[in-house]
Amino acid sequence: MLLLGIDTSGKSGGLTLAEGDRESFQVLGSASIAGGTFSAQLIPTLATLLHQHGRLISSIDGFAPISGPGSFTGLRVGLSAVKGLAEILKKPIAPVSLLEVLAALSSTQGKVATALDAGREEVFFGLYLRDNAQTRKLGEQLLTRNQFLQELCNSEAALLVTSDHSIATIAAERGVTIREVERPGSEAAARIGLGKLLAGETVSVEALDANYIRRSDAEIAFKC
């Protein structure tokens, strides 16, 4: 299976062209995309990546986009591109949560917590159950830093995985075992997405949506 991993959730992003099956995974090539240029550079970058590896866009068997949490604008651009391509090519989509990717980086079994700095003194918090190579979501939520520390203690997680040093620092004060990693990107999305595509854990073009976790300022203002 040839698949495309896409990450437009952060300040910068990228694409990964990979192939694999139930026994193997191989990255054919990756390309970065500078922040603020997603809408202009995503499709040209994809075209270049396909050309470099002698593939046609029609040969892509599925898409694995990071669906959030992250930049509102970046996620909209990335997921809109996936929707358009998947609609035209009639190919499946396996969205991947960035918090889920963090959990999958752990070899620890049992409950694994993940966290990302959400700004505004808030934290994106995820709780997952790791069973061998399987990762099952127990919950994802937006918390204040104090709520995060309390939830982390209550979760009885064996490990916290984060890519934000500030989160690791405050969690360390609670004596939690921490694994600090680099922020995952399109390659990690492709790796997790392959398993989802093979298992049929996909969504339709119409159902694909961003996993913002936090409501936008516009939504909050409208509710008020």
Brief sketch in words of this structure:
This protein has seven helices and ten strands.
Structure description:
- With 224 residues, the protein is of the alpha/beta class.
- The protein has seven helices and ten strands.
- The chain has helices at residues 38-52, 72-89, 98-104, 145-155, 165-172, 186-199, 217-223, and strands at residues 2-7, 13-20, 25-33, 62-68, 96-97, 110-119, 122-131, 134-144, 159-162, 178-180.
- The strands form two sheets. It has a five-stranded mixed beta sheet with strand order 3-2-1-4-5, with helices on both faces. Strands 8-7-6-9-10 form a five-stranded mixed beta sheet, with helices on both faces.
- A hairpin with a 5-residue loop joins strand 1 (2-7) and strand 2 (13-20).
- Helix 1 (38-52) crosses helix 2.
- The chain starts with a strand and ends with a helix.
Give the rounded overall mean pLDDT: 92
Can you summarize the main beta sheet? Answer: 5 strands, mixed
Assess the beta-strand content as a share of residues: 25-35%
Number of beta-strand segments = 10
Uncertain runs:
217-222
Spatial order of strands in the largest sheet: 3-2-1-4-5
Instruction: List SSEs in N-to-C order.
Output: EEEHEHEHEEEHEHEHH
Overall geometry comes to globular
Based on CA atoms alone, the radius of gyration comes out at 17 Å
What is the topology?
Blueprint: E1 2-7, E2 13-20, E3 25-33, H1 38-52, E4 62-68, H2 72-89, E5 96-97, H3 98-104, E6 110-119, E7 122-131, E8 134-144, H4 145-155, E9 159-162, H5 165-172, E10 178-180, H6 186-199, H7 217-223
Parallel strand pairs: 1-4, 4-5, 6-9, 9-10
Antiparallel strand pairs: 1-2, 2-3, 6-7, 7-8
Helix pairs in contact: 1-2
